[in-house]
Amino acid sequence: MTKNKQTYSRKWVERQIADRLGFYYCDVADIFNEFENILKEIIAKEESLRFTRIFTMYLTKMKRRKGYNVDKKKYEKLSESCYVSFRASKALLSKAKNENPIKEND
Questions:
Q1: 91 or 99, higher pLDDT
Q2: Where are the domains of the chain?
Q3: Under 8 Å CB-to-CB from 76, ≥6 apart: which residues?
Q4: pTM recorded for the entire structure
Q5: How far apart are CA 100 and CA 69, in angstroms?
Q6: What is the rounded CA–CA span in Å between residue 32 and residue 14?
Q7: Are the beta carbons of 67 and 78 closer than 8 angstroms?
Q8: CA 74/CA 67 separation, integer angstroms
Q9: What is the mean pLDDT of residues 41-65?
Q10: CA 67, CA 73: separation in Å to the nearest integer?
């Protein structure tokens, strides 16, 4: 991310949706809370989610491996670990690169 760029928060997005669609903020916040719960359930089941035109969420598992501990200055065995990964959709990536802007009615 480049310096001096705005970083938006979840609350900002919730307020934008409420204002643009004429919903109460608390209703939109409830929707986002439930969406968060759904994401957590998907992660707990070790499954993935394709949120069309926005992102794909999936788990990346790292097997046990040997890694270098900088503090101890020696190699150690690292246990298996799991990461949640997000990949932006082609539509978002093209928008970021200013290629084929997303149409409002899509």
A1: 91
A2: 8-45
A3: 66, 67, 68, 69
A4: 0.73
A5: 45
A6: 8
A7: yes
A8: 8
A9: 94
A10: 11
